[in-house]
Write a structure and sequence with these properties.
With 272 residues, the chain is α/β, with parallel strands linked by helices. It contains 8 helices and 12 strands. It has helices at 47-60, 77-80, 123-135, 155-163, 179-192, 224-230, 243-250, 263-270, and strands spanning 32-40, 65-69, 89-90, 93-94, 97-98, 104-106, 142-148, 168-173, 197-202, 207-208, 215-216, 235-238. The strands form 3 sheets. It has an 8-stranded mixed β-sheet with strand order 5-6-2-7-1-8-9-12, with helices on both faces. Strands 3-4 form a two-stranded antiparallel ribbon. A two-stranded antiparallel sheet has the order 10-11. β10 (207-208) and β11 (215-216) form a beta hairpin. α3 (123-135) runs parallel beside α4. The protein binds adenosine-5'-diphosphate (ADP).
Length: 272
């Protein structure tokens, strides 16, 4: 009786009341339009690499991009961009560090006194840090923010899913993994959280011989297309194994790496 459908201001405990949102408020001085989570089943498949490539590719298209490094215990984003400074803050918030081409980055490695110090923190502290990257960092007019999620479906991944307003997730796999199982887990988690899946990126898909130009499937066929179809999604990029690329990442010049592998992913992101 007299229901206004405004659950926030209503005190009655009716059955159809919407559960309280766990979503966190962005810092008052920030502006972030789209938030994309990048997930993987396990470490080492290239999730951080693909996160960086997506941010670089969208930045080249003229969008202001940012990376929130939620992989707190394995932060590799600052190194890939050659960022070795410390982030500074004021009473108003912490400022992200900008890369050479203007991508905003926040990572625990930009806050540690020594970037080689390990992060030996318990789950709730790590989750709290990720939340603060959203609430306490001043993100300046960002069109696309990419969240480098910790691998798997653990505590911190759950925090990101519940606390940040994700517009979609991208699943990164590599042919060595049990791809079908990994994709199914990620798809189910996204469904539980009501977050759309934008597509799958297969990393280390093949190796192109620099001499004969032939493509070799080093880890064998992954049947990624069939897997994607089975779970109602699509493959939006296939990234080859490229030693040149690993070198760029190691020496902090990932922004100089040029490849058309991300073109389809870029088009999908533009459509959100
Ligand atoms: P994750 O974030 O999944 O743990 P990373 O993105 O840190 O994985 O990648 C692990 C390592 O593999 C890094 O040293 C990176 O440079 C290398 N790497 C990732 N993708 C490729 C690729 N396509 N070709 C060559 N090296 C790659």
């Amino acid at each position: 009786m007299g229901c206004t459908h405004d659950c926030e201001s209503c005190s009655s405990a009716c059955a159809s009341k919407e559960p309280e949102s766990l979503k966190l408020k962005l810092n008052e001085m920030s502006s972030v339009k789209k938030v994309i989570g990048v997930v993987s089943g396990k470490g080492g498949v290239g999730k951080s690499t693909i996160t960086s490539m997506l941010a670089v590719a969208m930045n080249r298209e003229g969008y202001k991009t940012a990376i929130l490094d939620a992989d707190v215990t394995g932060p590799s984003i600052p190194k890939a961009f050659g960022l070795h400074v410390r982030a500074v803050g004021s009473d108003l918030g912490i400022l992200p560090v900008e890369t050479t081409t203007g991508i905003e980055v926040m990572s625990v490695n930009l806050l540690l006194e020594n970037e080689t110090d390990p992060v030996v923190w318990r789950g709730p502290v790590i989750s709290g840090t990720v939340k603060q990257f959203w609430t306490d960092v001043i993100w300046n007019d960002v069109d696309y923010m990419f969240v480098d999620m910790p691998p798997g479906t653990g505590d911190v991944a759950l925090t990101v899913f519940q606390s940040l307003p994700l517009d979609g997730i991208i699943i990164v796999t590599s042919p060595q993994e049990l791809v079908s199982m990994i994709v199914e887990k990620a798809v189910k988690m996204a469904e539980m959280m009501n977050i759309p899946i934008l597509g799958i990126v297969e990393n280390m898909s093949y190796f192109k011989c620099p001499e004969c130009g032939k493509e070799h499937k080093i880890f064998g066929e992954s049947n990624i297309e069939q897997t994607a179809e089975k779970f109602g999604t699509k493959v939006i990029a296939k990234m080859p194994i490229d030693p040149e690329f690993a070198k760029c990442e190691d020496n902090g010049s990932i922004e100089l790496y040029v490849s058309d592998c991300m073109d389809e992913a870029v088009e999908s992101l533009k459509k959100i």
